C-alpha cells in the first residue's frame, strides 16, 4: 500500500520591523527585507528559491508596509522580474550598467586629489543633495546612492576650486568588481569638464593599482551622464529596472 506524504506548511513570520521569514518545519526557506533609502522610500528584497514562498512573503510585506513600495531587479533576471510583477509591481525607471576600462588619461582644469577635509566634503555633499532635491529629485538617482552618516575620506576623490570642493567621485560597494557609487559636480560648476577630469583621475589611479575596469549605473533618462560614460569609453553591459507598487 502506498502512503502519501504532504509537504510541511509554510508559515510567514515577521521577525523584526523590516524583516520576514518563511518557515517550513521550523526551517527558514525564504527571507524578506525592507530597507529605507536616503529619500525615505522603502525598497523590498526577497530571497527564496520557490515561487510560492516568494508570493506569500511579498503578500505579507505589502500588507504590513505603507505604500508606495519599490524594488530593483537585474533586467536579465526575467523570472524574478515576473515574480515582482505578479505581486503587483510595475516598472518605474531603468538604469543602464556600464563598465569602463581604467586606461591612462590627463586631468583637466581644476585640482583633482583624494579628499582630505571631511567638513568641506560634507558641505559639498549637502549642496549636491539640495540641488538634486530641487531639480530632478532623488527618485531619479542611481539605486546605490546612499547618504553615509560618517564619510570615509579614503573612498572619495574631489575637485577643488578657490578653497572649496566643487565635485566628487565616491567608490561604491564592491559586488563583482570595483564600482563607482557617485559622480557629482556643483550645478554652477557644470559643463566645464570637471566631471570628466574627476573620472579620468580615478581611472588613472585604479589603473596604477592593477585594476582593469570599473562599473557604474546611469539612469537611461540622463543624457549628460550617458555622454560622460561614452566619452571615457564605457561599454554598456546590462540594465536594472526599478519597480513600484502604489
TrEMBL record:
Superkingdom to which the source organism belongs: Bacteria
Keywords assigned by UniProt, alphabetized: Acyltransferase, Transferase
Entries under CDD domains matching the protein: NAT_SF
UniProt keyword annotation of Calcium present: no
Residues annotated as domain N-acetyltransferase: 110-246
Gene3D superfamilies associated with the record: 3.40.630.30
Keyword Cell cycle set for record: no
Alphabetized GO MF terms: acyltransferase activity, transferring groups other than amino-acyl groups
SUPFAM superfamilies for the chain: Acyl-CoA N-acyltransferases (Nat)
InterPro entries for this protein: Acyl_CoA_acyltransferase, Bact_Acetyltransf, GNAT_dom
PROSITE patterns: GNAT (PS51186)
PANTHER family per record: AMINOALKYLPHOSPHONATE N-ACETYLTRANSFERASE-RELATED-RELATED
Name of protein: GNAT family N-acetyltransferase
Organism: Amycolatopsis eburnea
